[in-house]
Specification:
Blueprint: H1 2-14, E1 16-20, E2 25-29, H2 47-59, E3 63-67, H3 80-85, H4 87-98, E4 102-105, H5 116-126, H6 132-138, E5 143-144, E6 146-151, E7 157-161, H7 168-171, H8 174-192, H9 204-220, E8 225-228, E9 244-246, E10 255-262, E11 265-275, E12 281-293
Parallel strand pairs: 1-6, 2-3, 3-4, 4-5, 7-8, 8-9
Antiparallel strand pairs: 2-10, 6-7, 10-11, 11-12
The structure holds manganese (II) ion.
């Protein structure tokens, strides 16, 4: 318990601050686990839904915050096949970045992005700049462990982190876990359809343990509001409950789930595909919870 508290405390102190106000519009997604489009790629079946959602958020001037595990670097040892499989998605993210409306957080499956040199190397090889101005625009993408969204003219804030900080095996021993997934479970999944046992999303006991540790940290820190991902289990508390939110994931069967903040209200949203009577398909959004005033949680 002690060590987890210390890890989360450190992430809180190091968090990159972002100021928000009633005009801020934010979409939080996490746990896309974008892979190489193979059988083991959990994201492939949702990419159309996700890209459509991203286009609409961009059109409506939203800021995009990725709460970790955007990319699956455990099952894939190289970024190249991921980029090639999901080039459209990366190009959409680039649009947000150009407008200064993109914030990336690393999780345990893309923890290599802790290293800014790694991020630059990846960007340099895929987004080849046409001139010096473009170079600056492309290379300013940074990954952070955590963000602190400070509400303008108040002393209140929201702490955003992936959540594997509460999952000791996945934080300290991530290289070991990665090895296990990359060289063993990937093939089990591909050949026999067996799911990765190191994922908290697929292991109920570890999921509950992670949530409990974050709850304890929240209590210890005067009910600090937290938004995280990692467990793939969406969370949206009632006012008065512990302010522990979870973005869910983008690998749910046939839908993606995320959190929106708009006009200082928070909601849990789901994007999915419906088939009309004439067999045409349409991608739509539905609000699962909220919108609820943020101040009820602060
Ligand atoms: Mn994770």
């Amino acid at each position: 318990m002690g060590i987890v508290n210390k890890i989360i405390d450190r992430a809180y102190k190091k968090a990159k601050t972002v100021s928000i106000n009633k005009d801020s519009k934010i979409i939080f997604f996490s746990d896309l686990h974008k892979g190489d489009n193979s059988y083991a790629d959990d994201f492939t079946h949702n990419y159309k839904i996700y890209n459509q959602a991203l286009k609409e958020y961009f059109k409506n001037d939203f800021t995009y915050i990725e709460v970790g595990d955007g990319i699956e670097l455990w099952e894939n040892s190289s970024f190249e096949p991921i980029f090639l499989a999901h080039e459209n998605t990366f190009n959409l993210l680039k649009l947000f970045n150009k407008k200064g409306k993109l914030h990336m957080i690393w999780g345990n499956h893309d923890m290599e992005f802790r290293n800014p040199l790694k991020v630059e190397k990846v960007l340099r090889s895929f987004f080849i700049p046409k001139n010096i101005v473009a170079k600056d625009q492309y290379f300013d993408l940074e990954y952070y462990e955590s963000l602190l969204l400070e509400i303008e003219n108040t002393k209140k804030n929201i702490f955003v982190l992936h959540g594997h900080q509460a999952d000791y095996m996945n934080y300290i021993h991530w290289k070991f876990s990665r090895f296990f997934v990359r060289y063993f479970w990937k093939y089990m999944q591909k050949w026999f359809g067996i799911s990765d046992p190191t994922s908290p999303a697929k292991n109920y006991t570890s999921l509950i343990r992670v949530e409990k540790k974050i709850n304890k940290w929240i209590v210890k820190n005067k009910n600090q509001m937290v938004i995280c991902g990692h467990t793939h289990r969406p969370r949206f508390p009632d006012p008065g409950d512990l302010p522990h939110f979870n973005t869910g994931s983008c690998v749910h069967p046939e839908s993606i789930i995320g959190i929106e903040i708009n006009n200082l209200k928070i909601s849990l949203v789901k994007w999915y595909q419906i088939t009309n009577n004439d067999k045409t398909v349409k991608i739509v959004k539905t609000i699962l919870e909220g919108p609820t005033d943020l101040e009820k949680f602060l």
